[in-house]
Amino acid sequence: MTEHRAPYAAGTAEDVVAIADIPQFRAALDLMSRLESRSIANHSVRTYLFARIAAAHLGVIEGSDYDDRLLFMACVLHDLGLASNDERTGRFEVVGADRAAEFLTGQCWPAAEVDAVWEAIALHSSAQISERRGPLCVLVREGVSADFGGAIGPGLAPTAVSDEQARVIHGAYPRFDMASSLVEAICRQAARDPANAPRFTLPGELLRERGDPPVQTRLERDALASRWGS
Asked: Domains (ranges, CATH) in the chain?
């Protein structure tokens, strides 16, 4: 897989935000940027960049322990379930996993790789489950956790990220009040259909906590108090 290897995300400023310039990556970025808000799209890319840093700290080696192509797709496409043009029902994590699988199948990816990405996306909000489903699921969860500044679970995040790495990543992909934007999108998708917000799931609990009239959720408060402040 060396032809797909992305530069190690701990060297120069260019290395930290480098993304392999291959057609499938460009297609995924185009799909994500067309369907998601700028705030959520930037979150998705930062999730990938932070996940690579986490991999280095965990001693998880690209090319032997995980495939960078799968990590990129699972991170960049993990919030497709929040796209405003999708009326299908289900938890946003599962809807997003389905949409990512459809995209990768259309790109002629092998079924086993499609399934691996599907699992990592579907489980990315499931603490203590994703961490037991192999390196890909672990790294996606770590990347998401890092971008929330540790607000959704400690993992290695955000202590694995240096101040310089954070500066470069946030300079390239600004936050734009990410936590509130994401919570609002999750609650909006959850409110469309009861099947989108089962009790005791992330979307179900966020929607219940949001209330009517809307109030700030604990996740938003924790993110505001985190290292990144949003």
From this structure: 2-7+18-175 (1.10.3210)
